[in-house]
Design goal:
Structural class of chain A: alpha/beta
Distance between the termini of chain B: 42 Å
Distance between the termini of chain A: 52 Å
Number of helices of chain B: 3
Oligomer: heterodimer
Strand content of chain B: over 45%
Shape of chain A: globular
Shape of chain B: elongated
Number of strands of chain B: 11
């Protein structure tokens, strides 16, 4: 396949067309008042020019949201003030196709994230979300020719109404939890991807989410449909600058993996320390389909995120690998859930967490096997590394097995950095900080090496940054 | 030093508080279920105290074994370990939540929780939730859980040696429990457990 070359060519061309012509600082075209009521929801829907069914869907979800209590388990969410949030902010009047039209500030951040120019060119498609709207989307020509759709979720609602309506909200219904209801009421942006039967996208598609203004709520909605026998790898990155008050990021990601298809969804998240990150991610895997969540969580004030997979038909396979790094004032409450609803399904959950400077990391997981789901195999491994006595690490796995013909295994370990290891490395001439960083990297490496190379480099750098000044 | 064993026939609804350097060893041979949830608390309050629990659960009929075991490391150099093995047949079910916590002052804590379950019939079910909360770093902590039927490879091997299927299954179930018996010195208790397993197997078709 000549995808890389064509992609490269296309991006170079767009670069030549309008090099660095758009340097204006972004300002919001429209920002909803703080707080939420049905008027704001109607206004969002009106501004987006949505069909009636979507407005009804939003209003219904809002009622569900009001009716649900805050979760009483997991992280402390008492700091969230739903009245002090802008639910919809539109930075510019429409989605841009040319990377150079995108405000420099975002591109700079992209560069700071360490995604090098060369690598940008190799990515098959890119989407960027700034505040509530997708502002940039591109897709390699030949993928578009094969019928691949990669658009902002808003555009997809307009351009592919039937495909959209058939799948939207089917994996994560509004009533699933309080935050999925909130997202359903005020969602904006996110990616919509459709991969037709038998199409394999060899290079990752990528999206990038950024919260820029204070007291912002970002509620993107991503829907990926991989049709029979297709495959796709989607990568998302997230950041936000530091403000004194808190922001809320509450996304919903729905993935449908049809017969024999494969989807990998990779997240590299580095929110600033005042973002509540409460995300519902779920995939539905059909016959012999394969779903792989790769989830790297750094930053944020509180993260509650448990990517889940419903193995719905025979032979489906699921894998969840996650890495969490909790530093001072942070609580990473992450994990994974797998429901085995059919025979011959298998799953693996691997979680690694690091707690530092009084940070708290939590693994929370569920493996469920229903009656009749014969010949199921599942394995859960959680490892935690604690860097000092102030930090905290929790593990809350649950295994609920209603079928006899299964093999379920779970193991967990918790450790601190050994004096012996430190001493050995320091005797080789490393400083204590370098030695500790090396040990942390070694611990995280089994997850990091599953990332595309450039991201792996980036994550190693972020980890090194987190480790700076952590010793002595 | 000889082991002092507390030999039980159930998971008690009880709080065990450990004083400094106190060591207790609990073995449970449990063949009768109970309604509702039992709550066993092991509170290691004394420095250097340790508690080891080994439970053997043999479930038949409609019996339900539902318990929450809470282990609290509240002092330095404490050790709380629990190993649970259950074999379930008919429509029996076993649900164990292990809530292990290591408090801030419990440096040098050594903790372990394992729950392994063999499901021997279609109607049997198991739930296991080995929770672990750790508030300081100088600790040794681990947990493990598994649920499944008798190992197909091992069964195949025994069958290929001319052992009948019923006998082979019985051997594997006995082996499943035998592993845990090694930690127990008292021969009398060991034999009681072995006999109970044989009785249990004779009730299983």
């Amino acid at each position: 396949m000549a995808v890389p070359l064509k992609t490269k060519k296309m991006l170079t061309q767009t670069g030549d067309n309008s090099a660095y012509s758009f340097r204006t600082k972004t300002k919001s075209f429209f920002a909803s008042k703080k707080g939420l009521n049905t008027d704001i929801i109607r206004e969002i829907s009106r501004q987006k020019g949505e069909p009636q069914w979507m407005l009804d869907f939003r209003l219904h979800a809002y009622e569900v949201f009001l009716g649900k209590e805050m979760p009483k388990w997991g992280a402390d969410l008492s700091g969230i003030d739903f009245e002090n949030i802008h639910y919809y902010v539109r930075p510019q009047d429409k989605s841009k196709r040319n990377w150079e039209d995108v405000p420099k500030e975002i591109k700079d951040t992209f560069d700071k994230l360490g995604i090098p120019e060369a690598e940008k060119k190799f990515l098959a498609g890119t989407g960027a979300q700034f505040e509530s709207e997708m502002i940039y989307h591109s897709l390699a020509e030949n993928l578009a020719k094969q019928g691949v759709i990669f658009e902002s979720t808003d555009d997809a609602l307009k351009n592919h109404p039937e495909l959209f309506k058939k799948h939207f909200g089917t994996v994560v219904p509004p009533g699933d939890n309080k935050f999925s209801a909130l997202n359903s009421a005020v969602w904006s942006g996110g990616s919509f991807i459709y991969v037709p039967k038998g199409v394999h996208i060899e290079l990752p598609l990528q999206a990038y989410f950024r919260i820029n203004i204070e007291n912002m709520g970002q509620f993107e909605r991503t829907l990926i449909i991989a049709d029979e026998g297709s495959s796709i790898h989607y990568v998302e990155g997230c950041t936000a600058p530091t403000y004194s008050s808190d922001s809320l990021h509450s996304a919903v990601v729905e993935i449908i993996v049809k017969k024999g298809a494969r989807v990998q969804y990779t997240t590299i998240q580095n929110w600033s320390g005042n973002v509540y990150n409460l995300v519902t991610k779920r995939a539905m895997a059909y016959e012999n389909a394969e779903m792989f969540w790769l989830d790297c969580n750094l930053g944020s004030k509180v993260t509650m995120k448990y990517p889940s997979i419903i193995l719905r038909e025979r032979g489906a396979k699921g894998e969840i690998q996650s890495l969490a790094f909790a530093s001072k004032g942070q609580h990473q409450d992450a994990g994974g859930k797998v429901m085995h609803l059919a025979p011959d399904t298998s799953s693996t959950i691997i979680s690694k967490s690091i707690s530092k400077n009084g940070g708290r990391s939590t693994y929370r997981g569920l493996v469920k096997v229903i009656k009749g789901a014969k010949n199921v195999k599942t394995r859960v491994v959680c490892d935690a590394l604690m860097l000092d006595p102030e930090s905290r690490s929790d593990t809350y796995p649950t295994m609920d097995i209603k079928e006899e013909d299964v093999a379920v295994a779970h193991e967990a370990t918790v450790a601190s950095i050994g004096e012996d290891e430190l001493f050995y490395l320091m005797s080789r001439g490393l400083s204590e900080e370098q030695a500790a960083t090396l040990i942390v990297n070694g611990f995280a490496n089994p997850i990091i090496r599953k990332l595309p190379m450039e991201y792996a480099v980036e994550l190693n750098r972020l980890l090194a940054l987190e480790m700076t000044g952590s010793v002595g | 030093m000889s082991q002092k064993i507390l030999f039980l026939d159930t998971i008690p609804d009880q709080t065990i508080t450990l004083k400094s350097d106190e060591e207790i060893f609990v073995v449970g041979l449990i063949t009768t279920g109970w309604p509702g949830i039992r709550n066993l608390v092991i509170n290691a309050q004394g420095r250097g105290s340790s508690c080891m629990c080994i439970f053997f659960i043999l479930g038949t009929g409609n019996s339900s074994f539902d318990a929450k075991i809470q282990a609290i490391h509240a002092a330095p150099k404490t050790q709380i370990k629990a190993r649970i093995r259950s074999a379930l047949t008919d429509r029996s079910s076993c649900s164990i939540e292990g809530a292990w916590s290591i408090e801030k002052n419990a440096s040098g804590a050594d903790t372990y929780f394992a729950h392994h379950t063999l499901l021997l019939s279609q109607g049997a079910s198991a739930k296991t939730a080995p929770f672990l909360e750790i508030k300081t770093d100088d600790v040794k902590a681990g947990h493990a859980a598994s649920v499944g039927k008798v190992d197909a490879d091992a069964l195949f091997y025994l069958l290929s040696r001319g052992i009948s299927e019923q006998q082979a299954r019985a051997l594997l179930v006995q082996g499943f429990f035998e592993t845990e018996l090694e930690a127990i010195d008292d021969e009398e208790i060991k034999n009681k457990i072995r006999e109970a397993v044989i009785t249990f197997l004779s009730q299983t078709k």
